[in-house]
Write a structure and sequence with these properties.
β11 and β12 form a beta hairpin. The chain has 363 residues and is α/β, with parallel strands linked by helices. The protein is globular, with a radius of gyration of 20 Å. The protein is built from eleven helices and 15 strands. α3 crosses α10, α5 runs parallel beside α6 and α6 runs antiparallel to α11. Bound molecules: nicotinamide-adenine-dinucleotide (NAD).
């Protein structure tokens, strides 16, 4: 864990780790492991995060927040969660009085992230929040401010930044192994056949650019090590009865970086795709799959192969162990709130660019 963090800082891959000094966290009595409460017990909590918390060394599943009493009962039984650590959305703020809970992990639809992150920070808890961090840059900033004001840390669930294949390709690029980066192409998409899920509701934070789009922005930003200065974008749908009024099924965007590097990114709820391709002055790097829960595989110029295998949900366990370690030992987070904000700022610019047909500046 420590090695992964040092590696990211040394290589300067995670701009956020460099740009923001560690928070001085008001520490409770030192613990060996942090108690985590999950807010929202949907797919990601059920299938990935709760199982991953059974693998972590630095944290454990201590509590749940749910609006569904039957889920509360099932989870409490399955994970041996005491009744005093089970909350609903109304009494959630009482979590402030519960010393078992150190971290609140918000795994709700994006439109609800701001409210629950701020309530958790005000309750004096450290906060982890799923991607996309929120719907607007302003919401992200409000969440960052609330955590700073309450001297709590705020991490975004960017699981890839914690996994060894991603860390290796970033180091490879940062070490200049293929020279100056000229072009990045990154795609992430899957067939989502749902029609009434929050991902198909604009007001809940739906739309593919928010959902899978943050992965391709991460690909472009981490590969170049830069922040884009302008974007152009196009959107289209094959299911206009579902994807309408600004809700996107497929988005393509082109990013310009200060060095002159360019990125073409594609994301879709109608196309299965998952790769990162980086072209430098002296060679190439390719990761495919790129953003999966495991199985990331890479190849690059010079016969380089990247493949660190692990089982699902080890990736999420690495993420939470890193973030708990950062809190317990007052280290910089690998993906703090500021990192989530950077992507949402670009997401908003991409929607504006697609709507106007014009290039949108980000400086
Ligand atoms: P989901 O729809 O399966 O679960 C959402 C949960 O929120 C449910 O328990 C639902 O009951 C609860 N909820 C409370 N109020 C709600 C409301 N008004 N409308 C809808 N749901 C409400 O969603 P999910 O796939 O678990 O996604 C949750 C978050 O996790 C999102 O931010 C998503 O982007 C993120 N996620 C991240 C990854 C990853 O790889 N990092 C993967 C999947 C999901």
């Amino acid at each position: 864990m420590a090695t992964r963090r040092i590696f990211l800082q040394q290589t300067g891959l995670i701009a956020s780790s460099l740009a923001f000094s560690p928070l001085t966290i008001a520490q409770s009595p030192k613990k060996d492991r942090l108690g985590v409460a999950l807010v929202g017990l949907g797919y990601y909590s059920t299938d990935l995060i709760a199982p991953a918390l059974q693998l972590t060394k630095n944290c454990y599943l201590a509590g749940i927040v749910t609006g569904t009493p039957s889920k509360a009962e099932t989870w409490a039984k399955k994970y041996n969660i005491p009744e005093k650590n089970v909350y609903n959305y109304q009494n959630f703020d009482k979590i402030a009085d519960n010393p078992d809970i150190d971290v609140v992990y918000v795994i709700l639809p994006p439109s609800m992230h701001r409210e629950y992150v701020i309530r958790a920070a005000k309750a004096g808890k450290h906060v982890w929040v799923e991607k996309p961090m929120a719907m607007t840059e302003k919401e992200c900033q409000d969440m960052i401010n609330a955590c700073k004001q309450n001297k709590r840390s705020l991490a975004v669930g960017y699981r890839l930044q914690h996994e060894p294949n991603t860390q290796e390709y970033i180091k490879f690029l940062r070490d200049g192994k293929i020279g100056k980066i000229k072009m990045v192409s990154c795609s992430a998409g899957y067939n989502d056949n749902r029609t009434t899920h929050w991902k198909q509701k604009k007001e809940m934070g739906g739309g593919v650019m928010y959902d899978m789009g943050v992965y391709v922005l991460q690909g472009a930003r981490l590969a170049t090590g830069e922040e884009p200065i302008s974007v152009t974008a196009q959107q289209y749908t094959t299911r206009p009865e579902i994807y309408k009024n600004g809700l996107d099924e497929t988005t393509m965007a082109q990013l310009v970086f200060p060095s002159g590097a360019r990125a073409a990114v594609q994301t879709s709820f109608g196309i299965n795709m998952n790769f990162l391709h980086v072209t430098g002055e002296k060679g190439f790097l390719k990761m495919e799959p790129y953003s999966a829960y495991n199985g990331q595989t890479g190849e690059a110029s010079g016969g380089v192969k990247i493949k660190h295998p692990y089982d699902v949900p080890r990736q999420q366990a690495m993420q939470m162990d890193d973030d708990a370690d950062a809190i317990m030992n007052n280290k910089p987070l690998i993906a703090p709130g500021e990192e989530g904000l950077r992507d949402i700022r670009i997401v908003e610019a991409i929607y504006r660019a697609a709507k106007s047909g014009q290039s949108v500046k980000l400086t």
